[in-house]
Design brief:
- The structure is a homodimer.
- In chain A, the strands form three sheets. Chain A has a four-stranded antiparallel sheet. A four-stranded antiparallel sheet of chain A has the order 2-7-4-5.
- By secondary structure, the first copy, chain A, is an alpha+beta fold.
- Chain A contains seven helices and eleven strands.
- Chain A folds into two domains: about 120 residues, Sandwich (Jelly Rolls), CATH 2.60.120.10; about 80 residues, Winged helix-like DNA-binding domain superfamily/Winged helix DNA-binding domain (Arc Repressor Mutant, subunit A, Orthogonal Bundle), CATH 1.10.10.
- In chain A, helix 4 packs across helix 6.
- Chains A and B meet through strand 5 and helix 3 of A and strand 5 and helix 3 of B.
- Chain A binds a DNA duplex (30 and 30 nucleotides) through helix 6.
- Chains A, B: InterPro entries: cNMP-bd_dom, cNMP-bd_dom_sf, Env_Response_Regulators, HTH_CRP, RmlC-like_jellyroll, Tscrpt_reg_HTH_Crp-type_CS, WH-like_DNA-bd_sf, WH_DNA-bd_sf.
- Chains A, B: Pfam families: cNMP_binding (PF00027), HTH_Crp_2 (PF13545).
- Chains A, B: Keywords: DNA-binding, Transcription, Transcription regulation.
Chain lengths: ~240, ~240
Amino acid sequence: MTFDLKDCGTCPIRHRAVCARCESDELEILESIKFYRSFEAGQPVIWSGDSMDFVASVVTGVASLSQAMEDGRTQMVGLLLPSDFLGRPGREFAPYDVVAVSNLTLCCFRRKPFEKMMLNTPHIAQRLLEMTLDELDAAREWMLILGRKTAREKIASLLTILARREASLALQTAQSGTSFELPLTREAMADYLGLTLETVSRQVSALKREGIVQLEGKRKIIIPDFDLLVAETGDDADGGVMV
Amino acid sequence: MTFDLKDCGTCPIRHRAVCARCESDELEILESIKFYRSFEAGQPVIWSGDSMDFVASVVTGVASLSQAMEDGRTQMVGLLLPSDFLGRPGREFAPYDVVAVSNLTLCCFRRKPFEKMMLNTPHIAQRLLEMTLDELDAAREWMLILGRKTAREKIASLLTILARREASLALQTAQSGTSFELPLTREAMADYLGLTLETVSRQVSALKREGIVQLEGKRKIIIPDFDLLVAETGDDADGGVMV
DNA sequence: CGGAGTGTTGAAAACAGTCAAAGACAGTGG
DNA sequence: CCACTGTCTTTGACTGTTTTCAACACTCCG
């Protein structure tokens, strides 16, 4: 990490996070209640039911939100990438398990002061509303994947989503020939998609066998023809989501 | 409906809708941009991709949001009950199909004036943020149902959700002996749960055969022992969701 | 070298889906 | 009043995808 941990001005997620609309005087207040926390890949950030005295922005890395059933079945219900927001103002106890999927840095704000600040800083509430509405859209797209797609379509959809995100970080659109590092294990992919890890492994192998994706090691994905992959998602060619 | 269509003061959803926090002067502005629209059960409200020049609150009835795939597979991604909000400020085109599941009355606001009003009326934006966060929680619970539950658990979960809502309208908690009218056809239930309508029918019959629910006609559900039903959902006894 | 974590592959079983037929019910019009 | 129609629902038989259970391969690391 090469950004200055104290200065919001050099923060890599400054323009997309919950503080994106803040003026410099507002940032100063935020700086006074913020602190950074880091987690190694695989580490828990918080367990469902724990009291949460902070909310946070993901600065670098990936975190997952999941819900577990008594018998161990687990469903991932959120994937937090850099600039995404963690926690809910006004809520004391965490409703989900939060785990660092990769090495993770959070910019945390003490919850009480943050809530107080939201009341007189419309810029924060406005941005949070926008981000929450976007997350709701993403959750609904995810529901279609979970409820109606086949195992193969689910895998293709996940790879498409990850490729698009990777591209958008570089301010591009996803293209043939792009490649990216899979931030998820087979088990995490399975928890995301509502499958077993064996089924994930089989379907990834099948896509590889058919030349729709190439693998370098277990984790690096190369997509020789992006349209070919999109055709496997079951969505229409434009990606399905209307803007 | 016995409420006065002009006066927010007698509106049945006044205390829970997006306008819940508004002062009387704010309500006056809202009244000047609002209008009511009604739809019969089964009627489309808007199609995915249509331009939407209004946002709205559900006053009475039930509406569904769904996403369709090219080949006809359909997934319901939202169920809007009285007081729920429809539409997104700042968005021109509808991303989902909206259908009146039962007879439906909407309190519509012209989108442009509503957006303008949001900027100088923090009460509306605050309430909308709260409602959106609640919807996101509901969507995530739904994801667990779609991704990890068996057909039987899905049906039991849906009935539990509907029973709880029914009870909360009467300001009670769900209890043994409660009954309610199913607002959904078997097909709509299937679209909600990511099942086929045949599987829904079979599982409802099975729960009836085992005495876990009783049916009066096709649509009225009686729950003799609420805990027995909850035990079939796969969640832990307290309902799973932490508040 | 042994062990833990991660991933792959095979065979059998189970669950939900598909296809098909028929029942229940409400509304319509003769 | 009754036959007819259309919609919604139930049930049966069969099929097929995904899960389950099991074994094994690969890599990293002490």
